[in-house]
Amino acid sequence: MGKYQEEKMKFGKMLSHKIENNIINIRFQEKAVFIKVLNSYIINFFVPLHREERNSKAVGNLKDDYYDFKVENITNGIQIITEKLVCKIYDEFKVDIYDKRGTLLCADYRGESKPFKRRYGDYMLAESEGHSLREESDYKVYVSKRMEEEMYFYGFGEKTGHLNKKGYHYVNWNTDNPKPHGETFDRLYKSIPFFVGLSKDNAFGIFFDNHFETHFDMGKDNSEYYYFAAVDGNLDYYFIYGPSVKNVIKGYTEITGKMPLPQIWTLGYQQCRWSYDSEERLMEIASTLREKEIPCDTLYLDIDYMDGYRVFTWDNEKFQNPEVMIKKLNNMGFKVVTIIDPGVKVDKGYKIYDEGLRKGYFATDKSGITYVNEVWPGDAVYPDFLNSKVRDWWSGNQKIMIDSGVSGIWNDMNEPASFRGPLPDDVMFNNDGITVNHKEAHNVYGHMMAKATYDGVKKATGKRPFVVTRACYAGTQKYSTVWTGDNQSTWEHLRMSIPMLMNLGLSGMAFCGTDVGGFGYDCTGELLSRWVQVGAFTPLFRNHSSMGTRDQEPWAFDKDTEEINKKYIKLRYKLIPYIYDMMWECSKNGAPLIRPLLFNYQSDKNTYEINDEFLCGDNILVAPVVEQGLKARSIYLPEGENWIDYWTKEEYKGGQYIIKKTPLDLCPIFIKGGTLIPVGQVQNYIGEKQSNSLTIEVYLSNDNSDTEYNHYVDDGESFKYELGEFNNYKIKVVNKEKIEIKIDLINYRYDDKYENIEFIVHNLNKKTLVINGETVEVINGKAFIANPAR
Ligand code: MIG
């Protein structure tokens, strides 16, 4: 630690402690510390360095009634004992956390800070940057932990680079940087100050709830320690015990909120462009998709639909009657989503500006005068989303868009971005009576805008809101999906998107995606073909590209590219029932749809650094090609399972590397042996074909193990599921001499019940098939059961 922080972070000797409910209040010579035991595996450490109240933007209604812990005195300190953890606290507020078997999980670092050597000449070159731009003395909050043996780090939201973040330094300061995002970028649009540490099969998480500029150094400064730090604010962090990564994510999403169940159409394919800037062009896209039978649920309108970039308006020359146009599109099975930016055009006579100005709804400079910068509409002002009145106003305005027929809202530029230099530190916001400056407001600006949008869309539609945002903070998953901003049509960015999305998923942002095909720069047919093979498995599946780049719709290149796009978009539609099941699971336990292999196979260390394979839910492994021209690739199949090639149905033992040929139309996909995948019909849009039957593909295990699967059905749009109006089919497969399938409708509160279920059984090996107690005939691997559940 440098001199300066030593002062700031000085605690001194422990003097006393007292316990009030679930809070242990420790008095040190220099400071008071509050330790809250949230449950047997989550402990919060709070030191009010900046102000007394927490003012958390991430943490919602936490359950606060855990008292099942003990506090004991030990030499030079105390220890807190829960069912799962032993947390020892010493003088100088040093904290060491052990599991119940006495394994040390996470210990404060006691040594000196000792950055690896750098040697400079007389001047600095741009090329020699590669360290954080902050001097250590800029930190007012700083906690360093000892690097344990064999450590791996994950999470951190949307960061460039690889899956494992050990050895890197990242910054949270929401940033719109138009240069091609590369490994040297230490910050992007989102701030999620959370990570997972994994060492020797024990995982824990640390969530540092501080939305000033925060820094995470995971052993770049020196390999003996890692640290998290902030330029200001309180020390407020949560330790979340695993030992499984799964449990850490469950705990993290208990603190910051779960991704809510989305409307089912949002899981379809989405077509976007900057911009479909007239009714003709948009209708042309819509009819081409339908003519070519390329399934698609959603079309986007980028900034050019607005009248001079005035938010909540339409350009009535390009779109003469939006309501009529959107009705037409709705009848064709499309939903329309419109973009919106926070910047409000400075323009007397424009209702939104006048109203906001009159009511004092915009951020000001330090003397209270409305602050002006420049964005798309020219001079623009910034709604103060930290003020709940402003959020109510913004929420109410959503109705303008909803009334014209749009089904979802896309929030852009909410870092907030600005064309005339960054917002100065002293731009002021009114956090419901607490004045905060830009340094404190910046990283939660997009988060609060997303919240306002979510609330407004919910109120105006009564349905589950579909919101997309570019900037976010921890917990934004409660309000919005995210995309990873302006990537480029390069192989490097396709490669990077996989670890980036996996880490976003491990950071609570389970509903995420990248611009399929890449935003900036020109895409090629081959690149789009490979990108769609990844996109088909990511929750947000949207093709988008920038103004001026060449066309990037599935048919824009050649027949082969079009066919490959169609093949994978159709596969996506087939998998919708499975994907929806996984989203439902996620809404309860935080387990992301796209996740690294280690999430399910933590005991297999070979999975810890796989960047170019991922799991789509529990049962599907995807090993996409992310290199141009690659004719074959090696694939690691995790231990403890058998894996069945989705295309050929060949079976492989787990725990080995295999090589698969990868012609352009082939993305290697493996299904875990002993699993079920419910599949739907291929249709032009979700809900086009109404049907009372379901198909379930059964992939038998060859080790005779039993399988269980929960299949979820509801109306796909309303909040009635919260009242229990859904069906939950519990399907059990017992694989012995006979294959016995048993279907139980364990929750039947939704009217529509399947009349038939068709089973397609792979690897049956001539065994007898019994469903619900009746032996059934299997023809070409297929068997039917009528009235499957009562
Ligand atoms: O300054 O609205 O990331 O998806 O197409 C560019 C135009 C503004 C940035 C977004 C991009 C969007 C574009 N926007």
Automatic annotation (TrEMBL):
One of its GO terms (molecular function) is hydrolase activity, hydrolyzing O-glycosyl compounds. Residues 694-763 form the DUF5110 domain. Keywords: Glycosidase, Hydrolase. Coiled coil: none annotated. It comes from the Bacteria. One of its GO terms (biological process) is carbohydrate metabolic process. This is DUF4968 domain-containing protein. It comes from Clostridium beijerinckii. The lineage of its organism: Bacteria, Bacillati, Bacillota, Clostridia, Eubacteriales.
